[in-house]
Amino acid sequence: MDESAESTREQRKRETARALTDAARRLTVEHGFAGFTVEQLCTEAGVSRRTFFNYFESKENAVFGVTAVDPRQEALERAFVGADGDLLDDFLRLTVDRFALLNPLDDAPAMFAVIEQEPRLLKAAFEQLAKNERRDMDLIVERTGDSEGAALQAEVMVHTVGALVRLSMDQLLHHQSSEPFGDLIARRLDTARTVFAQKAD
């Protein structure tokens, strides 16, 4: 299969996943999370049940837009593991590239509406966040080697960058910042490095 055909196929797959996620969020807001079945969701999106499970492991994942496999994200992660630059800078680049790929700002209003309708999904959202953090820790350990202290280093790095992501997202969502996400988080990371480098008198 040539690159053009592969690109068209991947685009169609992304459009199908997006249609399922949009339908899952709309149905959740209209009927509640328990108010519709996977079969009804599939009918709404015009796909089969089998197709649904090719994209999502569960109805919750469809609501959150967490696909079973995203080749673009996998490519970013493989590039990070194989890179040999500064570890923290490379992890920040992975974070920024993922943000550009997934663009969570576009999804924020729909997700706020879903959580308002179904507050219990907030627990599942935090569980998904924890799962993503564990995945990133594993990527860092894979890159650096499973040496003594590697897991702790990965934990600190992932949670530190995660906190900076949340601060940057807050500025974009609630303070109408026009500054690009990459610049916001890079500036915060530079400040964090300065703060951590300071020595007590």
Compute the average pLDDT.
91
Q: Report the strand count.
A: 0
Secondary-structure content class: mainly alpha
Number of helices: 10
Shape: globular
Distance between the termini: 64 Å
Proportion of residues in extended strands: under 5%
Low-confidence stretches: none
What is the radius of gyration computed over CA atoms, rounded to a whole number of angstroms? 19 Å
Helix and strand pattern: HHHHHHHHHH
Level of helix content? over 70%
Largest sheet: none
Q: What's the layout of helices and strands?
A:
Blueprint lengths: L2 H29 L6 H8 L3 H7 L3 H6 L6 H12 L4 H16 L1 H14 L3 H24 L5 H25 L6 H17 L4
Helix pairs in contact: 1-2, 1-7, 5-6, 5-8, 6-10, 8-9, 9-10
What does this molecule look like?
This protein is mainly α and 201 residues long. The chain contains ten helices and no strands. The model has no long low-confidence stretch (mean pLDDT 91).
